[in-house]
Every structure is written in C-alpha cells, then in structure tokens.
Structure prediction request, 264 residues.
Amino acid sequence: MKWDIEKSKELKEKIANDIELMKELSERVEKVFQEFGLDFKEMSYVFEPRVFSMEGEEFIEVSRKSLPALISEILKYHSILDIHEIDISKYNCLPQCGPLDPYHLKIIERLRIREIVVDEPIKNSAQLMRRIMGDSTLHQKLSEALFEPLIERGYLTKDEGCVFTPMVFPAPVFAQKVAKINHPDEITGFAPQLYDFSDINSTSALKFKPLAGIIEIEKATTLIPGVIIDKLWWWIGIPAPEFLRALDRLKDIAHSKEMEQLSK
Prediction:
C-alpha cells in the first residue's frame, strides 16, 4: 500500500478554501453523530483526510502494512522525526483509524467478524475510532456523509482510497486564532494518528497536548479550523460545528473593524 501526503494536502486545501463545502461536511457528520447518540460532553474534534492507494487483497494485511508505510512516507518530509523514538502503542492506523471511502469500506466490511458498540462519552481519539469502526451501520452512514459531496465535486474518484482520521480534544470555549502562516504548505498534518493523550501525568501526553482554534493564512487572509500539536502537526479538514461558529465570530469582528475604518 502507499500513502499520498501530497494528494492529502491538496484535498485538505480544497476543503479549507471552500467554506460552503466545509460547512456541508461538518453538518452531515454532526447529523450522523446525533442520529447514533454519540456523546462528546465537553470534547470537540477535527477529521483529517488521508489519501492512499492499495490493492484489494492487501486489506488482509492492512494492519501490518499501514503504519510502517505511513511512517516511511512521513520521514520523507520530516527528517527530524526519529522512527526509533515513536511509541507505536500510542498510535493507530488502518483499518481502525476512521471512516473509509465507500469503495474500500465494502472491502473491509467483508472481513468484519463482529460488531462492538460501546455507548460511552467520547473523551479521546481512541474512543471515537472504536465507536465508528465497531458499528458497521454508523461507519456506513458516516462514509456516505463524508464522501458523497467530495466525489460529486470530483475531489476523489469512486475507487480512490481515503480515510478521515479524528483528533479529539477539549472543546475551545472562545473563538481565537492560534497561529498565522504564510502558505497552506506550512500546515503539514499527516502523521501517525495520535491514539490517546488522556494521561496527563505522562511527559509524552504533555508533549502532544493539542491547541485548537483558528489558523490564519496571512497573505490570503483565509481563516481555517485547526489543531496544533507540538508545533509540528496541524490538523485541518472536517471540523465540529463549534469551529464553524468560531469562524463566523472572527469574521464578524474583522468585518466590524473594516466598517469602523471606512467610517473614519
């Protein structure tokens, strides 16, 4: 199998630059979560798209192949990341890391041997992954919600591999900018999916504590939802509804400032 960082970046950028698409995807995901009674309490989330290619029969070995292939691709872009320092137990990858495109969903469901539906509040990424992947009906509905608009717009082909991996973190209380960047290429994302950072006594948990908010692309004056982790990885893609409200708040403030300047 092969992960495609460049195509994943392109897809994230298309979503980030199309606010109506971002809103549509966010609302569709939230509708599915409400239908299935997912309880996030005080947590929030962002889904990051990751594009891949794989032969159908490779799914039988996908757990063994996907994480090494992902790390190998990352090392091409982030030489500072030492593969020997990665604690694999803290990460998750295909087939368990998130909702799949319809084509590969059909393949993976042929390998399912049981359903695992745990009705509990979602507190971290691991729980959300298990909740989605353990329930075939939820997985199917979420796959349709995410991929129908993308395929309709030609952003993905019908048989192109893509998985949306979630990052779960404490929901921000206020709308705020957490970073400014000059170009979308600075938003890297695409790292081994963080599996669990709930242990606050762990130094690695502190290292990976996410900072969620709005990222501004300075030269384009574009605002996008994102999560900064250890100053290296930025997750953007499908945000929870509160991020859309945060975008609206910041845009309202920017518009008010413009009106104030014009009136002087």
About this structure: Residues 241-263 form the longest helix (23 residues). The chain has a mean pLDDT of 82. The beta strands are 2-4, 43-53, 91-92, 161-170, 177-181, 193-194, 210-217, 222-229, 233-235, 238-239. The two ends are 60 Å apart (CA to CA).
